[in-house]
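User: I've been trying to design a sequence by hand for this structure and keep getting stuck. Would you show me what you'd pick, starting by listing the structure so we're on the same page?

Assistant: Good idea, let's start from the same input. This is the structure you sent:
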């Protein structure tokens, strides 16, 4: 599930939400909405930014 995977990979990289936000150029609010499962359909551009920053495939985030 996206929410769990994003949180898992973020923590594996030892990044706070703020740090991930800055590095991926995605708002903290967007990251929180994904991690707390408040959004079920984020933009593909957002997923690409997050996956690139976390060095994982978009598919791995979506598993």
């Amino acid at each position: 599930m996206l929410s769990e995977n994003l949180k898992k990979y973020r923590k594996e990289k030892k990044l706070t939400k703020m740090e991930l936000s800055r590095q991926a150029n995605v708002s903290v609010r967007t990251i929180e909405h994904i991690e707390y499962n408040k959004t079920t359909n984020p933009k593909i551009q957002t997923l690409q930014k997050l996956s690139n920053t976390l060095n994982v495939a978009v598919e791995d985030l979506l598993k």
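That's my pick for every position. To get oriented when you compare it with your attempt: Residues 2-62 form a domain with the 434 Repressor (Amino-terminal Domain) fold (CATH 1.10.260.40). The two ends are 6 Å apart (CA to CA).
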